[in-house]
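<discrete_fold_record>
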Amino acid sequence: MTSLTQAPETGTTAPTPPRGDETVRTNRLARFTPYGLVGPAVLAFAVVLGYPMVRLIWLSVQDFGPRSLFTGEAPFVGLGNFTRVLGDSDFWSVLLRTLIVSVACVAALMVIGFLLASLLRQVSSWARVMLSVCLVLVWAMPMVSASMIWRWLFEPQYGVLNWVITQLKVFGDFSTHDWFGSPGQALFLIIALIVWKGLPFVALTLYAAMGQIPDDLYEAAGLDGAGRWSMARHVTLPILGPVLAVLVLLEVIWSVNSFTPFWVLTQGGPDGGTTTLGVYSYLEAFTRNDYGGGAAIAIITVILLAALAVLYVRRLFAQGEVTA
């Protein structure tokens, strides 16, 4: 005699598998959802940044001068503006100066920012709050205002620094010393301003990244006899590698594109000693009225920065510091 045993009934039923058309719709929705989320941002960037870039590219291949402002006609010259700019010896000296300024700014920002972020982790809570507030206030100050304050501090006759140095009576009479009359001193002061203005972003970013490092790593390194420098070299810096990579890339772009401090403090002088690519493009377009040449310089700057960014990111991927 054969007995049939039925499975005990439960209060729930097995979920009904979706039909084929529902599965297709679900997969299609999942595939296109990311594009729908980033679509509005991409559209906004295309409108805000896309049109100016296209207009700049078109302007760079035209002989657009003062006459074109009134007639609206500008002959097409192709790569003529680029050939003329690249054949100018002034362009290469400006490019070299821009690279020097960028390297100096980025190196100073990374070193001082790392030290300041480390200090924020060591001080007491109230000191950390006060220091963070000061950094945020510096960061929030407009660059034009900061440049005007910098100009007042180092003004030849009424500058605060000249008065302080003169009152110390150590270096002699500095009451009429013109800090911006020498290209070397002027360039140093502009670099110091850029570093001072960009330091809060670097320091606070590194401080936030350091807070994500487990304390167990430092305790293990301390048990192995590692000092502070060894911990920073073998624990902190390797873990902060991806963050430092992004900061370096951003600061290079911002340093190369920096315009306001150069223009407010020196307008590229004296004798072109503080002219960088941003100032050079502005002078070419609005002082010499060669708008096509100024646009060509701007396009060359964008190409150089894009190439540098691609090479830098590829190198980071090859070294394994950044993962996809």
Remarks:
- Residues 1-5 have pLDDT under 50 and may be disordered.
- The two ends are 65 Å apart (CA to CA).
- The CA atoms of residues 94 and 265 lie 17 Å apart.
